[in-house]
Every structure is written in C-alpha cells, then in structure tokens.
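*** Residues and shapes ***
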Amino acid sequence: MSYQEDNRGQFHFSPRRGWMNDPNAPLFYRGVYHLYFQHAPNSLQWDTMHWGHATSTDLVHWQEQPIALDPTIHPGDLWSGGGVVDCGNDSGLKSGDHDPILVYSGTRGVTVFYSLDGGYTFQTYDGGRKVAVPEGDSRDPKVFWDPASQRWGMVVWSDAGGNGVDFFSSTDLLHWTFASRFAAEWLFECPNMIRMPLDGNYHWVLHSASGAYYIGDWDGTAFRSDWTVPQKINQTATFAGAGYYAALNFSNLEGDRVVSIAWQGENHGSVWTGNASFPVDLKLRRTTDGLRVVSTPVPEIGVLRENTRTWKDLSLDSMAAPGLRGATYELEAVVDVRDAQRFGIRLPREIAYDARAGQLNGVPMSPQDGKVKVRLLVDRGQLDVFGNDGDVYQSYNFDGVPELFIEGRLHLDSLTIHELASIWVSAR
C-alpha cells in the first residue's frame, strides 16, 4: 500500500487498510504520541472492534503499529475508551523501566488493560473484571486527573434515565467508587472531561461525541455548570460518521497544553474507510457571549510546509487563487470584507463567508475593524476551516476538486499559501 490511493488524505491519518472510527486513549509518553482507534482491520464497514495503534514524534507524521487490543486476546467489547500514563505508579502495576499505561474500554461495565512496554502491547487486568458498572447501557470510559483533589476521575456515558454520564473516583486507577451523575440530553456517547486554564484559573470542559460542551466546575466528585444551552467545539452537523465526531485530547502532555483529535467518517477508498481529523490545540477564550473553547491547528503543521508564497494588499474580483496548485495546501488570509458579499470554497457544496450576514457557513463571525481571518487546510478529501483565530472551527469530508470563489470585490490585507508535503512519503 502506497497511501497514494485516490482521495486518501496526505496529512490526515488513516489506517493502511480496513475500517477506522473513534480515536481512543490518545496519550504522550517519552517523546512519542500514541493514537489508538476503533478498527476493523479486515472490513470496510463497522465490524468486530479492535484497537488500532499509530505513533508519532511530532503529531503530524504517523507510523501505524501492530494492533494494540485484539478481541481474540483481550476480553469484552473493545469499544471506545480512554487511557492515562501512571507516572506515579498509583496502580502498583509497574514492572521494569516503563511507567504503566492503563486504557479503559468495555460496554455495560469498564475493563482495564495495561501496558508495561510503553504502550505497544497490553495485558488484561484481573482477568477482565469490571472495575466500574454504571446503571443502564453504558460505554466509552474516559479517565482524567484532578490535581486539586489529588484523585483520578472517570466519566462514562450511560442511558440510565436518559442521556448523561456517571462519574467515578479512584486513588489507584483500579478500584472505582461511584461519585455522581450529570444528565443532559445533548450528552450522548464518548464523553470527555478536560481541565483548561484561563487567566490564572482553571475551568472544566465536559463535552460529548458531537462536540457539544458545557464549561463548569469539578469539586472532586461532581461537575456543575450554570449553562443551560451547550456550545459546540466544531460547528458543523456532527454525528457518527460525519466530518467530526468522538474527539478526545492527548493525556500526559507537558504543562496545560490541550491537543484534540476526532474521527472523520465520510472519507473512504478501495482499501480503507475513515480517517482522523488534523490535531488542534484547544484553548479557552473570553468573548462577548462568555467563555468559549477555540481551536487552531497544531503549529507542528509547519514541518510540512513547502513552496510558501505570500501576497500583500491584494484586490480580487474573481478567484483563481494566485499560484495555487495541487490538492494539499494551507491557506491563510486576512480579508477586508467591507466591500465583499460572499467568498469561500466549493466542494461542490459551498463553504462560504457571508459578509452581509457576518457568518462563516452559517456560524456568526463578526469582522474586527472590518476584517476577518480565514484559514483552510485542504487535503484531498478533507477540509478544515478556521475563522478568526479559532473562534470558528469546522471539518468536512468531500469528493471532487475544491474551487475558490468570490462574489463582489475582495480586498486581502494578506494571503499566504503553503503547499503541504505528504506525511506518507516514507511509506511509499
């Protein structure tokens, strides 16, 4: 396999072959990023789940590894879940030079698997005994560390009484006590809890598979928020199989950095189905509407840039983008929209900024001093759209060749186009 099949993304990770869906237990350990993912290696459709595995040293170039969790070896339904690096050996599982890496999976109860070789192979803890069993149907456990209470927390989706999550607490990552429940209709599948800084304080973000989220507080046992309407991390139609779903953040990163990666389900070819979104940095920002999560591509994308061209003070009344060629590129523009009507990209569907409505593809995005910032990552069948430094974030899969367009006269303070190299060059 050359990774050059038609429509395969050249800087979005996809498996060499087979089906891919949710990212699982993304984590960082000793200079290596580990991405596990839902995987049916011998099918182009959802089938008996394995945990696939890929590694990277820069969040950009990925090397697929042997399967991490195999249903012929590891018991239970190996559906989505999370994982942590047990740097303090709280679990007492350490044996050898490596810190234990624990991952959590399972339906109708949580099963623990652990690695003692840096995250490449896993053993089953206690014969597959369920360490936490929420009421009702349940799945998708995610574990997080709370430095304030000095305890581990686990959030698990369950349908007991309707959509919501059960929280559990632990000091050793192996024995869990029910702590509380948070119910919300929008809180369906693949929940995630992230501790995020802003202005010297920390807030907690609870989000679902769709990217819908609340911002609130965590007291060590319960999540509380005064929000009544969720916001969305990715402002598109997000559902299982869409261009964005089931995002998780990498655990064990240094400092307060939050890097998130999701599943894009609409991309496929002759030997694979599905890919990962391009990783983004998540941050909190104060806006006129309150606190919001904003997203920008990880800066490591810079290692792929080649043949960069920049124009300043450029006026256009038609868009044959200057010097644009190829199907993998990054475009950055600062646009004066005071005389513009609409501009954007056709996939063939249109992703456009409407200057009259002040909206980027239906999402409010106000000009600042009459200008907006737009950033596009175009990767064959994948498109990531960022507006005003991450205020807007949208991900799409598409077929065909993207075409840029303008309605009305457009003035660009600046336009930069980076052609992007393939991450699969070494795999050819």
Notes: The mean pLDDT is 94. Residues 306-427 form a domain with the Jelly Rolls fold (CATH 2.60.120.560). The chain has no helices and 33 strands.
